[in-house]
Amino acid sequence: PPRPPVSDAADAALRRGDFRFQIGPFATRLALSSPLARRDFRAIYGEYPQYPADRAVDFHLRIAPTSLLRRWVRPNAMVQAGIGNAPFVPLPADLGFLALESAMNWMVATTADAWLMFHAGVVARKGRAVMMPGLSGAGKSTLTAGLAVSGWRLFSDEFALLRPETGLFHPYPRPVSLKNRSIDIIAERAGADRISRRFLKTPKGTVAYLKPPEEALRLMDVPASPALLLFPEYRPEERARIEELRPAELFALTRSASINCDRLGETAFTAIADLVARCRGFRLFYGNLDQGMTMVGELMERVA
Hints:
Blueprint: H1 8-16, E1 19-23, E2 26-32, H2 35-45, E3 59-64, E4 76-80, E5 91-92, H3 96-111, E6 116-125, E7 128-133, H4 140-148, E8 153-156, E9 159-163, E10 168-170, E11 176-179, H5 181-190, E12 199-202, E13 205-210, H6 214-218, E14 225-234, E15 241-244, H7 247-257, H8 261-264, H9 266-278, E16 280-286, H10 289-303
Parallel strand pairs: 2-3, 7-14, 14-16
Antiparallel strand pairs: 1-2, 3-4, 4-5, 6-7, 6-8, 6-9, 9-10, 11-13, 12-13, 15-16
């Protein structure tokens, strides 16, 4: 990929472990020992804002070989987060960037309890947000990415962050993880310069990352009101259709998508009940990306 606008000074900060950057409400201090991991990071995160050195960060992460020997012999990459019993395992050195992405997912999912979190994609238009939970393989990431490069504001592909006190979704615009066939589908729409290199032979096959549109980064401190709760499923062998969910079913499905509901207890129950009361919910069964995007747009028009 073309070299992004990150300075040599920033690359030096990554080497010594003092590079600070911000994504939505979270700031991370990062060390990357591998030149390849630093190159991947610069290619994908080069447009993100750096974080002031005199302010506290939320996460401290270091990606490095498990030993000096493993820097040269069967090189690997391991996350160090200063937390005992963390579920990180070594990955081949050329997948060091994936180790970083997994570490950031785990840190947010296990510590960010100021928000009620859902495993979902979130996009917004005119200040109104659509949350799209989805299981692996359901097409959530591809649909979120397609909308993000077609005029919708990207909030997240990984975490929907709902502030219980306000009922608003807050952006967390990480790069969108694309897998296998989805990479080419989105590259045709976004342009090859917005897609990272392809990471081969990962546990999920071939993976690449879509860099968020400029607007998503510029407005990543601007929340939005919930409007729709959609549960998309990619079903190319079936007839495309939309099914509205009854309130009780919508509550159950939304609750099942929450990451930290059990930790938040009554606060989460009340926030989910309020979210369901404010939104209409639908299942979407679609056969291709254009069809799914049209469904989302039509439903947003219906509730506008």
